[in-house]
Amino acid sequence: MDFNKKIGILGGTFNPIHTGHINMALSALKECALDEVWFMPNGCPPHKTVSDTVSSISRYRMVEEAISVYDNFKVIDIELNSTEYNYTHETLEKLSRNYPDYKFFFLMGEDSLRTFESWKKPGLICKYASIIVAIRSDSHEDAALLVTKYSKKYSGEFILLKSEFIDVSSTELRDKFYDNPDVKPEYIDDNTFEYVNRHMVYEGVNTAGYTEIGDIKRDLVETLKPTRYEHTIGVMHTAINLGMRYDVSLILCQYAGLLHDVAKSFDNDGLIDYCKDNKLEILDSEYKAPHILHGKVGADIARKKYNITDERVLNAIINHTTGRPAMSLLEQIVFVADYIEPGRCKANRLNEIRAMAYYNIDIATAMILKDTINYLKDIDAFIDERTIDTYDYYK
After folding, report:
1. Residue 319: Cβ within 10 Å count
2. For residue 46, is pLDDT > 70?
3. pLDDT tens for each residue of 116-172
4. Are 133 and 106 contacting, i.e. CB atoms less than 8 angstroms apart?
5. Which one, of 41, 10, 27, lies nearest residue 135 by Cα?
6. In this predicted structure, what is the pLDDT of residue 45?
7. How far is it, in rounded angstroms, from Cα 173 to Cα 185?
8. What pairs with residue 134 in β-bridges?
9. Where does the pLDDT of residue 115 fall: very low under 50, low under 70, confident under 90, or very high at 90 and above?
10. Which of 13, 39, 255, 363 has the greatest number of beta carbons closer than 10 A?
């Protein structure tokens, strides 16, 4: 039978994806004359437990980022969307049924080759795909013996790659991220690192010592006007929803959303006095529009009164009014939530921006900034340069 395409399948948890995976795919693409390699993140792999702290969507998106620069690579979600254990022979059978004109090659590393007999129904795996194996150069003879054995036993085609297998441990890479999330480990590409950093994929969240959410709410009921408190709760819930959408820590979204307007009980003179009393810098632009200071004052109150020590939360509170270029994702979430929460009803394009916020938060951020600048121009109000700079960055 003539096949329209030769497709390599590289499955794995990809927690995280690294250059070992990429090099294996590139070697198979070249040595076996494949048309494409499809990366297949596991949903519920039967042989290992995926860390609960890293969602399947995060692993899928890390793969998307890592392979985005390669024309012959793509990521598929055939196993990702499954709620049950994924067995390789079942997945390959589905692919063969869905793409009857394609010839499939299943990629595996040396360790998988050595345990292949323990896999569920290895004979069916060989029926639906040829097996491509990446090995270390010093293991070639042993691997060749196994290939000969399995080829006869399962009537399958096994191909040893000539390119040397890069043996990288995802566990060790995760540990490096946990130890120092701001430093890119070896074997992690720039796109994956940017995603990991932006979404705080491997960063722990420690809220020990923080004032309980319920206690903060009770405080805010007493200090904020009823309409401001209602807005605050709306921002908190909207921030949580956006956190679910963009895979950001929900507890950080909750604290940042709840406390973003904690200083709104101050009038302009009170904000200036607070800054002077607590040695907080006041910019010239903030003297011209003192209400902007409620973000800076709010972060100081969050730190001193409610024991919030996470700089990510504090920065989200500080920058939720003017924004800043290159905001963290948490900062963007609070910035956008402040604009689109359900109690808002007067802004132009509000429904369009709400929809865009869940589709592409960068575009939503630019839309908010543009409309804010236009509104301030229309009423001849002061426009902070940070807002203009932020719009120039995101537009």
Report:
1. 22
2. no
3. 999 999 999 999 999 999 988 777 888 999 999 999 999 999 999 998 888 899 999
4. no
5. 27
6. 55
7. 7
8. 109
9. very high
10. 255
Residue type (1 letter), 219: D
Matching residue, tokens 């096949």: 3
Helix (H, G, I), strand (E, B) or coil at 184: coil
Q: How far apart are CA 86 and CA 71, in angstroms?
A: 27
DSSP-assigned beta bridge partners for residue 102: 5
* Distinct helix (H) and strand (E) counts, the chain: 19, 6
Higher pLDDT, 55 or 32: 32
- Mean residue pLDDT across the chain: 94
Prediction pTM value: 0.86
**How many residues comprise the chain?**
395
Contact 256, 281 (CB under 8 A): no
**Band of residue 1 on the pLDDT scale cut at 50, 70, 90:** low
Backbone angles phi, psi at 11, to 5 degrees: -95, 160
Instruction: Tell the residue number behind the tokens 């399962």, with chain if given.
Output: 154
Residue 195: name the closest of 373, 329, 348, 377 by CA.
329
**Terminal C-alpha separation, the chain:** 52
Cα within 13 Å of Cα(11), Cβ side: 21
Per-residue pLDDT, 52: 52
In 3D space, the residue among 75, 79, 13, 89 whose CA is nearest the CA of residue 38 turns out to be 75
DSSP letter assigned to residue 118: G
Tell me how far apart the alpha carbons of residues 21 and 368 are, in angstroms, rounded to a whole number. 40
**Which residues does 110 contact at the CB level (< 8 Å), separation at least 6?**
133, 134, 135, 136, 139, 143, 165, 167
Q: How far apart are CA 394 and CA 77, in angstroms?
A: 30
Contacts (Cβ under 8 Å, ≥6 apart) of 35: 5, 6, 7, 72
Q: What is the 3-state secondary structure (H, E, C) of 284-299?
A: HHHHHCHHHHHHHHHH
Residues 6+ apart with CB under 8 A from 224: 232, 261, 264, 265
